[in-house]
Amino acid sequence: MTLPTGAQPPTDPVEPRPEAVPAGPEGTPADGPATDPVADATDEVVAELEEQLDREDDTRLEPYQAIVLTSFGGPEGPEEVMPFLRRVTAGRGIPDERLAEVAEHYLHFGGKSPINDQNRALIDALRAELQRREISLPVLFGNRNSEPFLADTLRQAHEEGMTRLLAVTTSAYSSYSSCRQYREDIAAAIDELAREGRTVAVDKIRQYWNHPGFSRANVRLVTEAVRGVLESGATPHLVFVTHSLPIAMDDTSGPGDDEGNLYSTQHLQLADAITGEVEATLGVSLEHDLTYCSRSGPPSQPWLEPDVNDHLRFLAERGATSVVLAPIGFVSDHMEVVFDLDTEAVETAEELGLQMVRVPTVGTDAEFVSGLVDLVLERAAEARGEQVVMPCWPGNEPRPSVCLPGCCPNLRVSKPAACGMD
Ligand SMILES: CC1=C(CCC(=O)O)c2cc3nc(cc4[nH]c(cc5[nH]c(cc1n2)c(C)c5CCC(=O)O)c(CCC(=O)O)c4C)C(CCC(=O)O)=C3C
Ligand SMILES: [Fe+2]
């Protein structure tokens, strides 16, 4: 079924066979046999043909032949911890003590990061959402720092005849770490394949901190957490939390077209907007702040502050008794969330006698997953040269899906980056 662009999803052209009549109200048995082997076999053939038609003629995701969920990666056993950490920190001046400390965090969980399982669950959810919309497109998995490595995934795709793919990254905001570094690693994987004589192109969806699928899902999750605390009789302080960055890196977040500091600004805007929505919905007034976790690097280097633990201490000193901790900087409960927040920050709160509720990350939330599929459709339409509507909340400034020259640079080294104008 060939679709004109922008058309509604295809409707089922085959009349559904009436279901077996259910038992009547008096418990009378249904008419006829519950299953009909001939009709069942026909259904199967029809379903198969339809699937084939979809595969061949669905144009909504053209020009892409697959989606690649592109993520950070993490170790899945104790023997993988150090090789993973060395890969992540190669040439970045992270002190040895910090590496040993982070290795401890992983070993505390048996050497297994939760991130890959969470991404496999996200892939399943994306596949289900694509299927619900009758779109058949493979969803592949490629990591930057652990198996399955992005280059291996792209090589496999190329062997299956694919040459143009769309990356969905597990990172919502703008900065070197959360955007350009993904683009550099995509470029390195493309280059590795090029040296084998394989040509593969990869585009990326826009950074989605202000796509409603992400931002509104966070509004709902924070609202429900605050509602629960209010019902218990307390008025919580709202503490938003994200990954810290060197201040120098925040300074260069997004200056291809902006003034910089886009990383911290995006988080502040979203934290303010979510708080406003929660207040309006629940009819309360809430104090809120943005805090940071997972600082690394040498102590001499300034990073974004306040640290979440320091801020909890500050709030307790000022008489706060209840906190809702909202990790809006993360898309799933990976190591930073289960260790830095659910272990360390929870310990801090306990020491201080603070009641603390941690808001879930978006994870495989249906609204988030559906938003990612909308972003994929949006990017495909854009790649076909169509005029696209780019939904946004808060504000009305979508990040460009093709990054502008000089966007989010690394001040130390400059490497080729994919999915951008430079
Ligand atoms: C902004 C940001 C995100 C969010 C966006 C995104 O999701 O991408 C993120 C995610 C993640 N970071 C992760 C792990 C690590 N990050 C490190 C180091 C660093 N991260 C940084 C920033 C970010 N990181 C920075 C500025 C550094 C300093 C060194 C450098 O400039 O690179 C180090 C080295 C040791 C240390 O210094 O802590 C590790 C092991 C994992 C995997 C978790 C798991 O296994 O579940 C994930 C999802
Ligand atoms: Fe990190």
TrEMBL record:
Where does this protein act, in terms of pathway?
Porphyrin-containing compound metabolism; protoheme biosynthesis
- Binding of Fe-coproporphyrin III occurs at S113, Y182
Residue span of region Disordered: 1-42
The residues that cross the membrane are: none
Give the binding site residues for Fe(2+).
H243, E336
UniProt xrefs under InterPro entries: Ferrochelatase, Ferrochelatase_C, Ferrochelatase_N
This entry's Enzyme Commission designation comes to: 4.99.1.9
Q: What UniProt keywords apply to this chain's record, in alphabetical order?
A: Cytoplasm, Heme biosynthesis, Iron, Lyase, Metal-binding, Porphyrin biosynthesis
User: From its record, what is one biological process in GO terms?
Assistant: heme biosynthetic process
Q: What are its GO cellular component terms?
A: cytoplasm
**Which molecular function GO terms apply here?**
ferrochelatase activity; metal ion binding
Q: Which reaction does it catalyse?
A: Fe-coproporphyrin III + 2 H(+) = coproporphyrin III + Fe(2+)
Cytoplasm as a keyword of this entry, yes or no, is yes
- Localization annotation: Cytoplasm
Q: Which domain of life is it from?
A: Bacteria
**Family from the record:** Belongs to the ferrochelatase family.
What does this protein do, in the record's words? Answer: Involved in coproporphyrin-dependent heme b biosynthesis. Catalyzes the insertion of ferrous iron into coproporphyrin III to form Fe-coproporphyrin III.
In its UniProt entry, what is this protein called?
Answer: Coproporphyrin III ferrochelatase
Organism of provenance: Ornithinimicrobium humiphilum
Q: What is the lineage of its organism?
A: Bacteria, Bacillati, Actinomycetota, Actinomycetes, Micrococcales
Whichever gene encodes this chain, its name is: cpfC
